Amino acid sequence: MTVAALTMYVEPAEVRDAYRQLAEAVALRLGETLDPAPEDLPALWTHPELLLAQTCGYPWATRLRGQVRLVAAPRYRFEGCQAAEHCAFILVPETLEATGLADLRGKRAALNGLDSNTGMNLLRHAVAPLAERARFFGEMIVSESHANSLALLQQGHADVASVDAVTYSYLQRAQPERVAGLRLLQRTRPSPTLPFITAASRSDADVEALRAALNDSLAADPALADILAIEGVTAVDETTYLTLLDWRREAVEQGYPVIA
């Protein structure tokens, strides 16, 4: 019942297919036969026979720590990414008169989820010094995906969104109309990229083999690596992602525990 699925980036279709191919290539290199994986992300992440998945660093730090093993972090070749780090782009419509974060007070914010590092945690950290221990945004809209947040901005239903640089770049490269009419107001601080994970029961040798299989699969298929814009993966440990909780703590200490 071994399962593997890399389903954090599912748009555009060529990217979704490329992540599927990468998961299958890794399994093939390791001699594993894959069964259908759960579509529900929490069920996938905690599957007892998980070979490989990708998660957001914030759910790992707040819910998954101890339930899965970290394997590696991808190194993306996109603007806003360096080594195994990325950032979020704080975006607004081109028509919005705002020159900095302070101008967003009382505006409508779209975020992909309340457990998102790039969509929520990094934006909360950026806004906390300005919130003055009170509500900052006029309305919070949970869009359920970064792509939906972009659409809400374009449709005039939201004024600001914090969007993962990788998601933004995948869409800008293949479907530039989906980011048209938006401008970058500010980048967030850098943050570790979304980690690859495996089941908690897997050994150190298993983790090393997975890491090598990821790098070897990407090196063996440059066209696949180009679609994913991944040049390779880097070993990570728990300290890499526990820094995300430091940023939550800093927001709490400034009287802004919940983005609002």
From TrEMBL:
SUPFAM superfamilies: Periplasmic binding protein-like II
Pfam families, alphabetized: Phosphonate-bd
Source domain of life: Bacteria
Gene3D superfamilies associated with the record: Periplasmic binding protein-like II (3.40.190.10)
Protein name: Phosphate ABC transporter substrate-binding protein
Organism of provenance: Pseudomonas oryzihabitans
Organism lineage string: Bacteria, Pseudomonadati, Pseudomonadota, Gammaproteobacteria, Pseudomonadales
